């Protein structure tokens, strides 16, 4: 291998190493903006109302960013690419009711939990209300969520259908293409309350989990700054106000 080739490879390696570095909190502050990826089809956490991005996750992130001294630049994408983009440095953080799991924690670094919740069963049949009653049933779930592996672990489920958005899963349930839909309890509550004529019933939990924003793996500079600001938002009453606005309760992990 001649010296020119070696030099070219070295340059390419250096470029790749630079690209591979996530932005530190100092770099984020210097730019004045925190680039955050989310989806906008998951009420009451991230959704669009009258053309405006809103929700608990959205308002909380903006409150935390304000404490950090920066503004949020939002990137709206499908849920299943949010964590992938962190590894590619396409954005600084991802937030959208992301459940903390051991598998995900190997790929990204989670900030401190924003809230605790869990996945519940929703069905038009009041008898489909627990894990045991999912036997021989067709279940709808959003692609990329933590609910899918938990549903796969339930014995004798007839079929699990993946949908890009919760709204698609709800449509399948209303149309009778599935027997049940599994989603976050607050999202389920919002959906059921928004269409009382549909006759949807909320059943029991499939799992309980902690949810948090995420940064690129080992970007502790940004994660620690976010955690500090989040603690301040929780301490000064801002968190409680935002939480009760969207869920009618304080949903922080006890």
Automatic annotation (TrEMBL):
It holds the Pfam family SBP_bac_3. Residues 33-250 form the Solute-binding protein family 3/N-terminal domain. It comes from the Bacteria. Keywords: Signal. It is found in: Cell envelope. Residues 1-22 form the signal peptide. One of its GO terms (cellular component) is cell envelope. Coiled coil: none annotated. The keyword Cell cycle does not apply. SMART domains: PBPb. Belongs to the bacterial solute-binding protein 3 family. This is Amino acid ABC transporter substrate-binding protein.
């Amino acid at each position: 291998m001649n010296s020119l080739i070696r030099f070219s490879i070295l340059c390419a390696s250096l470029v790749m190493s630079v690209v591979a570095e996530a932005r530190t909190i100092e770099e984020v502050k210097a730019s004045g903006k925190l680039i955050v990826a989310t989806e906008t089809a998951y009420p009451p956490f991230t959704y669009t109302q009258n053309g405006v991005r809103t929700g608990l996750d959205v308002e909380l992130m903006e409150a935390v960013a304000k404490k950090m001294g920066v503004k949020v630049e939002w990137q709206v994408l499908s849920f299943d690419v949010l964590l992938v983009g962190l590894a590619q440095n396409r954005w600084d953080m991802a937030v959208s009711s992301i459940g903390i799991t051991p598998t995900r924690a190997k790929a990204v670094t989670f900030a401190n939990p924003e809230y605790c919740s869990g996945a519940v069963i929703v069905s038009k049949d009041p008898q489909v209300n627990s894990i045991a009653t999912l036997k021989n049933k067709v279940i709808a779930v959003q692609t990329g969520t933590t609910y899918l592996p938990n549903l796969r672990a339930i014995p004798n489920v007839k079929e699990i259908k993946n949908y890009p958005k919760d709204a698609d899963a709800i449509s399948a349930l209303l149309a009778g293409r599935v027997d049940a839909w599994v989603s976050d309890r607050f999202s389920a509550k919002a959906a059921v309350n928004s269409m009382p004529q549909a006759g949807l019933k909320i059943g029991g939990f499939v799992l309980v989990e902690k949810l948090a924003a995420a940064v690129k793996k080992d970007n502790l500079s940004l994660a620690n700054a976010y955690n500090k600001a989040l603690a301040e938002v929780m301490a000064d009453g801002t968190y409680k106000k935002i939480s009760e606005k969207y869920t009618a309760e304080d949903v922080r992990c006890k």
